[in-house]
Design brief:
This protein is α+β, with helices and mostly antiparallel strands. It has two helices and four strands; from the N terminus they run ββββαα. The protein has a single domain, classed as Ribosomal protein L28/L24 (Ribosomal Protein L24e, Chain: T). Helices cover 26% and strands 36% of the residues. The two termini are 16 Å apart.
Length: 78
């Protein structure tokens, strides 16, 4: 499964983990992606989205209908 938010498009960040001896090794910061089901009245069904914690707050603020319309406008399937 990819660590990508369907609402915000958040993707993993990459960088180095630096140890006490200052040895640098590659590491990756994954977004906090959750699988959530939402009832979408405009579609008349439920949809399952992979959203980050910040994406959940965006849905709470803007509404699921608006967010699903944005996802569909990008050409992404819901």
């Amino acid at each position: 499964m990819s660590a990508r938010c369907q609402v915000l498009g958040t993707v993993p960040g990459f960088g180095h983990a630096i140890s006490h001896s200052h040895v640098r090794t590659k590491r990756r910061w994954d977004p906090n992606v959750q699988k959530k089901r939402y009832r979408v009245p405009s579609l008349g069904r439920t949809v399952t989205l992979r959203v980050s914690a910040r994406g959940i707050k965006t849905i709470d603020r803007d509404g699921i209908d608006v967010v699903v319309a944005r996802i569909q406008a990008r050409g992404e399937k819901v």
